[in-house]
Write a structure and sequence with these properties.
This protein folds into 4 domains: 141 residues, ATPase, nucleotide binding domain (Nucleotidyltransferase, domain 5, 2-Layer Sandwich); 150 residues, Nucleotidyltransferase, domain 5 (2-Layer Sandwich), CATH 3.30.420.40; 200 residues, Carbamoyltransferase, C-terminal domain (DHBP synthase, Alpha-Beta Complex), CATH 3.90.870; 86 residues, no CATH class. It is built from 21 helices and 29 strands. A hairpin with a 2-residue loop joins β23 and β24. The radius of gyration is 25 Å and the shape is globular. It binds fe (ii) ion. The site of fe (ii) ion has 7 residues, from α5 and α12.
């Protein structure tokens, strides 16, 4: 039984609001085994995209070596009623669009992209939380478990409790959308200058604050009820419930880009405390009610690794599993499992997911080398016989390394195949990496990757068994090790640890081990290989682009070391300027004034930037084949700097001439 799972939407125009049907992805489940999984954002380069996952589907089919006609069942990650309700609302608001429904649109897109005629009876619209639940339980290695799904919302629910056993999931209770903890968090972080998709940043800010400052205000938002129930006042999502009490308390919102004050830190601490309190109220009740000793925790809220650490330390369970793709991309996998079951192939496999490296690789060795060599006007390329040993030495000598190897990870965490790596010891490495690549808030911690042999010597992994391979749990760094791990220990003495086994990732395990041999500390700083404008890199092209538009010291792609030849602004002339599919230009005129030129990316919340007349003309002329020099003639230093800045923000791609 070959089942394809899909999340995302159907490429309707105008582009859907970014929070609607997000995390587009495809997963292929073959006889219960997850053989391929990747998010569409890795291809269209739009974070958490809600476009149709055509690139992801194609990649999954190629990875498995199958054709569309080989697919027995297709699962979609939301129920048909909700999909069509959303479309109905869209049609009313967008009269230019013909009225079409979910199943038709899904068939249309598959026909367009793959020349694939899918019979309607091959498509299963899975209940959203059931899809989340199956993706987690199926990979947990558990025969029975309490399964808790917690997210923004499913069809009409925000949390659903299941008891899993004997190959079945039995629903015990669901919580309404007005009780949504995912939406509470998402709404609340607007007060500190963040929005959808930024929840983990506010989680990182929380340890700097005092939750007592706004405890009274947060407590006014909810009432704990018996039997693991609670009520929100006023109920989400009728109105953002967090507004009134904080304004009455004199709280001043932070607008995006403004400094973070102690009040904002205290707010973050109070919010995180509230999430933990309410989630534990629910989970504790159902642990006691069912007597379950194992927990699968999933849904978008399960990416809150601080909460996950609290669950581990609660002592409620002997074992906890958190899927590396607990957000809606993972629900695509669960939808495939639900679809397979509906065609007579229920999931029976009991095997723990060892590795999240489920996406496409970088190409064959020849392809990788050819692609790198194409950039040789801009970078030096050197094949290393012992690339792991050389990289370990570079890291020990203080280099920050971009590291791309093997298949990409499924989920928001880079786990050693698409990573930026550095020595985890010097505290200043955090500021260095922020300055050279991430340009992100200084308060956000970086994560440590450690070998299993050394993990217990540095981290308190708790008595509760858990898979620490996916960076899902915040744990305590042993007090006497905190100074040693200055770059990865958070202000409260914790770390979002990744324990890297040789079984999960032999090359990364060897790299950490050999770094440890050189330094005495087998721990590396591991952060995702991207800058702040894009999703994690997928391809060789993405890796080189990110390397060239940051100040990362060395790029390692498979067995090759890559170093820039000089300042990138001097290297633009012979590169081809390629507009992205979403690149747009516009000019605004005020009568009597010169027009203002702007470049923007055409999707919900896509970025925009004012551009000079020279660069506007250059972008307007770009045909995807001409070099920058051919378009612009002689480049001034100002134009060079402007182009580099726009390239850093990914308004277009630059490629070597083929
Ligand atoms: Fe979800």
């Amino acid at each position: 039984m070959l089942a394809l799972g899909i999340s995302g939407h159907f490429d309707l125009l105008p582009a859907l609001y970014r929070t609607y049907m997000h995390d587009a992805a495809a997963c292929l489940v073959a006889d219960g085994e997850l053989v391929a999984a990747v998010e569409e954002e890795r291809f269209n380069r739009i974070k958490k995209t809600n476009r149709f996952p055509a690139g992801a589907i194609r990649a999954c089919l190629e990875l498995a070596g199958v054709e569309p006609r080989d697919v027995d069942a297709i699962g979609f990650y939301f129920g048909r009623d909700l999909v069509d309700l959303g479309l109905g609302n869209f049609h009313v608001a967008t009269p230019v669009q013909p009225v079409r429904w979910g199943l038709d649109l899904l068939q249309d897109r598959l026909r367009e992209h793959f020349d694939w005629e899918v019979p309607a009876d091959r498509v299963v619209f899975a209940r959203h939380h059931l899809a989340h639940a199956w993706s987690s339980f199926a990979r947990s290695g558990m025969r029975d478990a309490l399964v808790v799904v917690m997210d923004g919302r499913g069809e009409t629910t925000s949390t659903t409790i299941y008891l899993a056993g004997s190959g079945e999931l039995r629903e015990l209770r669901s919580y309404s959308v007005p009780q949504s903890l995912g939406l509470l968090y998402q709404d609340a972080i607007g007060h500190v200058g963040y929005g959808f998709g930024d929840e983990y940043k506010v989680m990182g800010l929380a340890p700097y604050g005092d939750p007592a400052t706004y405890r009274e205000q947060f407590r006014s938002l909810y009432t704990l009820l018996p039997d693991g129930d609670y009520a929100m006042t006023p109920p989400i999502p009728d109105i953002n419930p967090t507004v009134a009490p904080f304004y009455e308390a004199g709280f001043h919102d932070r607008r995006a880009g403004e400094p973070v004050t102690q009040a904002h830190k205290d707010f973050a601490a109070g919010l995180q405390e509230t999430l933990e309190l309410l989630a534990m109220h629910v989970i504790t009740h159902w642990a006691r009610e069912t007597g379950a000793t194992r927990l699968c925790f999933t849904g978008g809220v399960a990416h809150n690794s601080s909460l996950n650490g609290v669950i581990l330390r609660s002592g409620l369970f002997e074992e906890v599993f958190v899927h590396p793709s607990s957000h809606d991309a993972g629900a695509a996998e669960g939808a495939a499992i639900v679809a397979a079951a509906s065609f007579g192939a229920p999931h029976t496999r009991v095997e723990r997911l060892v590795s999240a490296s489920l996406g496409p690789d970088l190409g064959t060795p020849d392809e990788v080398e050819r692609e790198l060599r194409a950039w040789s006007g801009v970078v030096e390329i050197e094949r290393a016989d012992d690339v792991v040993g050389v990289t370990a030495r570079l890291l020990a000598d203080g280099a920050v390394v971009g590291w791309a190897h093997g298949r990409s990870e499924f989920g928001p965490r880079a786990l050693g195949n698409r990573s930026i790596l550095a020595d985890a010891r010097p505290a200043h490495n955090r500021d260095r990496i922020n300055a050279m690549v991430k340009k992100r808030e200084g308060f956000r911690p970086f994560a440590p990757a450690v070998t299993p042999e050394a993990a217990a010597g540095y981290f308190d992994l708790t008595d509760t068994a858990a898979d620490h391979g996916f960076m899902s749990f915040v744990v305590h760094v042993h007090e006497d090790r905190r100074a040693e791990l200055g770059a990865v220990t958070h202000v409260d003495g914790t770390a979002r640890v990744q324990v890297v086994t040789a079984e999960a990732n032999a090359r990364f395990h060897e790299l950490i081990t050999r770094f440890g041999d050189l330094t005495g500390t087998p721990v590396l700083l591991n952060t995702s290989f991207n800058n702040n404008a894009e999703p994690i890199v997928q391809s060789v092209h993405d890796a080189i682009t990110t390397y060239l538009t940051t100040e990362i010291d060395v790029l390692v792609v498979e067995d090759f070391l890559v170093r820039r030849r000089g300042p990138v602004a001097r290297a633009l002339d012979d590169l081809v300027l390629v507009p992205r599919p979403t690149t747009r230009l516009r000019q605004d005129w005020r009568p009597g004034e010169e027009p203002d030129g702007e470049v923007y990316l055409d999707y919900s919340f896509g970025p925009s930037a004012k551009v000079s007349p020279a660069v506007f003309g250059l972008l307007a002329a770009a045909d995807g084949e001409s070099t920058v020099a051919a378009l612009a003639g002689t480049l001034t230093d100002e134009v060079r700097e402007e182009l580099v800045s726009l390239w850093q923000r990914r308004f277009f791609a630059l490629s070597p001439k083929s």
